[in-house]
Amino acid sequence: MQDTNDSMISPEFSGFNFHPSVMEGLDAIGFETPTPIQQMIIPLIMEGRDVIGCAQTGTGKTAAYLLPILNRIISQPVKGVNTIVIAPTRELALQIAQQLEGFSYFMNISSLAIYGGTDGIEWEQQKKALMQGVDVVVATPGKLLSFLNMDIVPAGNLQHLVLDEADRMLDMGFVDDIMRIISYLPENRRTLLFSATMPPRIRDLCRRILHDPAEVNIAISKPAAGILQAAYLVYDKQKTALLSHLVKGRDLPSILVFASRKINVKSIARELKSAGFNVADIHSDLEQPEREKVLLKFRNRQLQILVATDVLSRGIDVENISLVINYDVPQDAEDYVHRVGRTARAEQTGIAITFVNLEEQFQFAKIEKLIDTVIRKQAPPESLGEGPEWNPRPTFSGAVRRSSGNKGRRTKK
Fold first, then answer.
1. What is the phi/psi pair of residue 386, to 5°?
2. Across the chain, how many H-helices and E-strands are there?
3. Sign of CA dihedral 292, 297, 301, 304
4. Which fold has domain 2-218?
5. Of 163, 151, 159, 250, nearest in space to 208 by CA
6. What is the spatial distance between Cα 235 and Cα 256, in angstroms, rounded to a whole number?
7. Contact 358/387 with Cβ under 8 angstroms?
8. Distance between CA 364 and CA 148 in Å, rounded?
9. Angle ∠(375,380,384) on CA atoms, nearest 5
10. CA nearest 116: which of 135, 144, 136, 97?
11. Distance between CA atoms of 45 and 51, rounded to whole angstroms?
């Protein structure tokens, strides 16, 4: 693996020598200056390199790979599917597809998003589009594999395979599906892998599927500088009351609350709604049209508060989120970065607050070590009673939860 060098970086999109249609699309949607990851990755893809991009959410990685791919499609079209982008969730697949549609507005380029939860009519439409040959397919792993198994994806001339949020896909158990997908694809292709973290299993995957990749690392596992981070030391019974206290009467038009389990997400939304707040919840139990409807209302500021699970933390693309609240501490330290990364995007400012109970203190200390930051901790308001003291040693009950895997995390606290 090779790292990129500073001599390749261009401070302006015009420096990449994009096709005029690409530049026209950039102008239309108001893109002026490339982000650091775009500056570093776009030239590598233009050169035809395999690439590993390690960057936290909100750094502009989607445009970093879509723009040079679109440029290649215009300049060197092929018969059949040119590019396949694999994403872990339907939300992220839709987000990528929407950006792709915006960038390619002035280009004669076709694209298709395929994911689970569609009905028979949509399935037939997707099948017909694939057989006719679209330029770019954006898909979730299981859905894509089902079409490949039916031998209706004309991928013999595939030029690019993109794995977006690769660490999340491995967390969700998609590694076998990914390897089966790759078995259907030609070896003579460019592979681009993007991940927020680089644990050993991602390195192993890179060695198996990439050829002499260039590696770009941008702000790994650290929240954006514009995020004001704080933590409240509380007991579980104080959390919902504290949440209400923090948002009641405040001029905060867009608040995102994360919880690790669906049962907590539903309970939080129900209690806030009964207290008079404009709130909705989003989780995997909702059908895709229901999720899209909720997200649209949140984007349009028709909802003040959205309560979501971790699975959606990388798929919620909403500008100007005022406040992110971690109702509980993420089990994985990297997930903290993704949760709080939904605020203070594009050099804006934002607030991220985490509720930390006694058992979660040890895990929260691990997060501080990961991001190399000591986060300000404070007691709950006097009206809610005293909270626990800061004492981040692994407790007996906490050790049991960590050693018991998913079964322990599903047990109600």
1. -75, 150
2. 16, 15
3. negative
4. Rossmann fold (3.40.50)
5. 163
6. 21
7. no
8. 42
9. 165
10. 144
11. 7
80/371 Cα distance (integer angstroms):
44
Q: What percentage of the chain carries pLDDT values higher than 70?
A: 83
How high is the pLDDT of residue 396? 42
pLDDT of the residue at 403: 31
- CB 115 within 8 Å of CB 288: yes
Length of the chain, in residues: 413
Tokens at 392, concatenated = 């981040």
Residue type, 227: I
Task: Decide if 16 contacts 69 (C-beta within 8 A).
Answer: no
Residue 108 vs residues 26, 70, 80, 104, 136: alpha-carbon distances, Å: 15, 10, 14, 8, 12
Integer Cα distance of 120 and 332 in angstroms: 37
Residue listed under structure tokens 């390619």: 104
Domain 227-410 annotated CATH 3.40.50.300: yes
Query: Token pair of 101, please?
Result: 């549609």
Distance CA 275, CA 6 (A): 54
Two structure tokens written together for 331: 């089990």
Contacts for 22 with CB less than 8 Å, ≥ 6 apart: 67, 70, 71, 74, 103, 107
Angle, helix 90-103 to helix 288-299, in steps of 10 degrees: 60
CA-to-CA separations, 269 to 68, 102, 278, 342, 344, in angstroms, rounded: 42, 33, 9, 19, 24
What is the CA angle 6-7-9, rounded to 5? 70
Q: What are residue 137's DSSP bridge partners?
A: 84, 112
- Take residue 105 and report the two structure tokens written for it: 């507005």
Q: Are strands 190-195 and 136-139 parallel, antiparallel or unpaired?
A: unpaired
For tokens 């919902």, the residue is 240
Q: What are phi and psi of 324, to 5 degrees?
A: -115, 130
Q: Is the confidence at residue 347, as pLDDT, over 60?
A: no
Residues 179-191: b if buried by 16+ CB within 10 A, e if exposed: eebbebbeeebbb
Start-to-end CA distance of the chain, whole Å, equals 44
Confidence of residue 47 (pLDDT cuts 50, 70, 90): very high
Could you tell me the residue ranges of all domains in the chain?
2-218, 227-410
Q: What is the pLDDT of residues 114-172, one digit of tens each?
A: 987 666 788 888 888 888 889 999 999 999 999 999 998 999 999 999 999 998 899 88
DSSP assignment string, 8-70 = G--SSGGGG---HHHHHHHHHTT--S--HHHHHHHHHHHTT--EEEEE-TTS-HHHHHHHHHH
